[in-house]
Amino acid sequence: EADIYQTPRYLVIGTGKKITLECSQTMGHDKMYWYQQDPGMELHLIHYSYGVNSTEKGDLSSESTVSRIRTEHFPLTLESARPSHTSQYLCASIAAGFYNEQFFGPGTRLTVL
Amino acid sequence: QQQVKQSPQSLIVQKGGISIINCAYENTAFDYFPWYQQFPGKGPALLIAIRPDVSEKKEGRFTISFNKSAKQFSLHIMDSQPGDSATYFCAATVTGGGNKLTFGTGTQLKVEL
Asked: Which residue of B has its CA nearest to A94?
């Protein structure tokens, strides 16, 4: 089982609040990713990072921001949450090597009221 | 633009039967095709993956068939079990392009007794 952690697992907040979703991995992976997934639907890449101080936006436009100050930590922040941000957010990291397996965290299910 | 198309959206199979999920892709630069399995409340986990230089890969009850000329690949689950009930996602990536995964829309598999 991969050592990638996400907190909180569930979050219910009101509109306008600032939130940070935490993602940490202990595998020393350089590449990390954030995906957004509505229940039972496909995953959409919203942010990725190839290493410390490297962040890029993904294929799906998102109002969230990310930072990568440490290799093991890749938090996602929403400055002002809205009901349209209600979704599941999945963090992943990738090991170097031929098969390039992405390891996923358990996800954070966010509900904005 | 949906770069990886997956079908069917849902599938019900009897225990012991064969589950077949199909995917088609458009980007000929894709060179790594993983399948992920996701249980409710969990992040996706890599099930099996294939590169386009082989036409088939088998791991236990799971087999990927790959048709490069048709730009299609499929997952076969032999002797399907109730524990296989989950959502399955095909994906594709260009391994030299940051390993960003493009996911299919997912197939909800239910294996009935």
From this structure: B99
* Number of cross-chain residue pairs from A and B with Cβ atoms under 8 Å apart: 56
Three-class HEC string of chain A? CCCEEEECCEEEECCCCCEEEEEEECCCCCEEEEEEECCCCCEEEEEEEEECCEEEECCCCCCCEECCCECCECCEEECCCCHHHCEEEEEEEECCCCCCCEEECCCEEEEEC
State whether B44 and A104 contact (CB < 8 Å): yes
Reported as a single tens digit per residue, the pLDDT across B65-107 is: 999 999 999 999 999 999 999 999 999 998 876 778 899 999 9
Scanning every residue of chain A, which has its alpha carbon at the shortest distance from the alpha carbon of B51?
A: A99
CB within 8 Å: A104 and B32? no
Q: What is the pLDDT of residue A83?
A: 95
Query: Tokens for A66?
Result: 């990310």
| Residue A55: φ, ψ to 5° | -140, 145
* CA distance linking residue B34 with residue A8, whole number of Å: 28
CB contact under 8 A, A101 and B49: yes
- Whether A99 has a pLDDT exceeding 70, the answer reads no
Q: What is the pLDDT of residue B47?
A: 94
Cβ-Cβ contacts under 8 Å, A101 against chain B: 34, 46, 49
CB A93 within 8 A of CB A31: yes
